[in-house]
Amino acid sequence: MIPEDLYYSEEHEWVRVDDDVATVGITDYAQEQLGDIVYVDLPQVGEKLEAGAVIGELESTKSVSDVFSPLSGEVVARNDSLDSGPEVINSDPYGEGWLLKVRPADEDPTESLLTPEAYGALVEQ
User: I need a surface site. Which of 76, 84, 85, 117 has the fewest CB within 10 A?
Assistant: First the structure.
C-alpha cells in the first residue's frame, strides 16, 4: 500500500512535509526488496544534503544499498533509535522507521518528487 499523503523519489524514498521540515524515509517497497535491515548509516544533524546525492546506506542480510536524498536541505534530526533497532524500518517504514528530518533548501521541496499515483506506476513496472 502506498500512502496518499506522501511524495516519493524514483530511488524509493518518501517525503512528508510539515511546515518547514520534511521527514524522509524509505518506502515499503524498498524495505521489502532489501530484506531484514541490520545496520543504518545516516548523516549527522547539521549536514547539508543535495537532492539525488548518496547520503547514507542501509545494510540488510541480502546486501548494502545506498540511501539517496530526495531533496536539498539541512539535516535537523536523525532517527537515532535506528542505531540500536534498524529492523523497525522493516516493520514500520512510514512511521517509527523514518530516517531523517530535513529543513528544505527549496521553497517547494516536492516539486521534483513523484505523486503517490506516479510512484505506484513506477513500482508496478
Answer: 84
Task: Domain count for the chain, please give it.
Answer: 1
96 lies in some domain: yes
- Global pTM? 0.95
Q: What order do you get walking across the sheet with 37-41 strand by strand? A: 37-41, 54-60, 64-68
Place of cell 524509493: 12
For residue 30, what is the domain's CATH number?
2.40.50.100
Cα–Cα distance for residue pair 111/47, rounded to 1 Å: 22
Beta-carbon contacts of 121 under 8 Å, excluding residues fewer than 6 positions away, are: none
pLDDT tens-digit readout, 18-66: 989 999 999 999 999 999 999 999 999 999 999 999 999 999 998 999 9
CB 49 within 8 A of CB 73: yes
Place of cell 535537523: 76
Q: Is residue 113 part of a domain?
A: no
Q: Flag whether 119 is in a domain.
A: no
